[in-house]
Amino acid sequence: MHFHSNLPHGLVGHNVSFTSALAFACKAARHQCPLLIVGETGTGKDEVARLVHAHSARAEGPFVSLNCAALPESLIESELFGYERGAFTGAGRSYAGRFAAADGGTLFLDELGDLPLASQAKLLRAIEHREVTPLGSLRTRKIDLRIVAATHQPLDELLRERRFRYDLFYRLNVARVQLPPLRQRRDDILELAAHFMAPLRRTPEGANVGWFDHDAVACLLSHHWPGNVRELRNVIESIFIDPPEGAITPHALPSYLTERTTTGWGDELVRQERRRILDTLSATHWNKTAAARDLKWSRVTLYRKMAKHEISCAAQESTPGTPGGSGI
Ligand SMILES: Nc1ncnc2c1ncn2[C@@H]1O[C@H](COP(=O)(O)OP(=O)(O)OP(=O)(O)O)[C@@H](O)[C@H]1O
What we know:
The chain is α/β, with parallel strands linked by helices. It has helices at about 15-30, 45-55, 75-80, 95-100, 115-130, 155-160, 165-170, 190-200, 215-220, 230-240, 255-265, 265-285, 290-295, 300-310, 315-320; strands at about 35-40, 65, 105-110, 130, 140, 145-150, 175-180, 210, 245-250. Helix content is about 45%, strand content about 10%. A 5-stranded parallel sheet has the order 2-3-6-1-7. Adenosine-5'-triphosphate binds near residues 10, 11, 12, 43 and 44.
């Protein structure tokens, strides 16, 4: 399967690791096997789960999701498997649960890594036997569904810490889709920004908003994006709260985004490297072989870096107090 700019279900992106993850998800969707989607928060795990459902033989069936991190431990099992009336205090009527609701379709278990160990055992049993027993009931119910699970936590670590069961992991880790964080698909940032801007531009207040100017583009491209695509969507929405007329400058961006760039991490690193080279050269009395050794570089690398930082031996004369001081 090949993806073009506008991916199914409105998923946007050209980046190769992203599109190949989607292509794999769509291939796996046609099989019955469970699917495990791994990726940081906001990378699109929920969207991909819906995409898998839509591409599966169960597309006509229900898509039901449960966020395992959002419920207290005591409620997870009754939510998953349902309960009979009177099963516990407050159970005024019976409840079928998410497994039953997803019968014939897809059950999306989000934040699976947060599922308590005791519930993991029951989940495994339900998957293996394809049946559930609601709390307080003696009757089991046959269920036919496909499990798609997602986690932002590295399950391997949870396995090592014994917070996740190996048997459940192996049951679910049949087809694994790894979604890259946005900072590893920076080539998609502007396309995603345009995608989130399009509907906002169609509002009367947003109609005069232009495109990002050079500096604003630099901010977007250099940000670390810990909240991934969701964070980018929020940034775009924040611009339209008080929409600028014409080009979007860094002033229109949230300050946490621009502060980083204006402090110039990149610039600072370059400055630090230049200083380190000059200090080492002066400590070795401008003996390039010794300096390269101290810097753990080859002589060629040292010469290349000196050229890049425009450090020539002439600097030696112009450096006051050499050897000793760097002069900058
Ligand atoms: N490739 C994409 N194209 C368009 N929109 C996207 C894309 N990826 C994610 N989004 C949007 O970003 C937001 C976050 O995505 P989603 O909820 O799927 O992330 P998630 O990985 O499930 O997050 P969490 O782990 O926090 O549940 C949603 O609004 C989603 O529509």
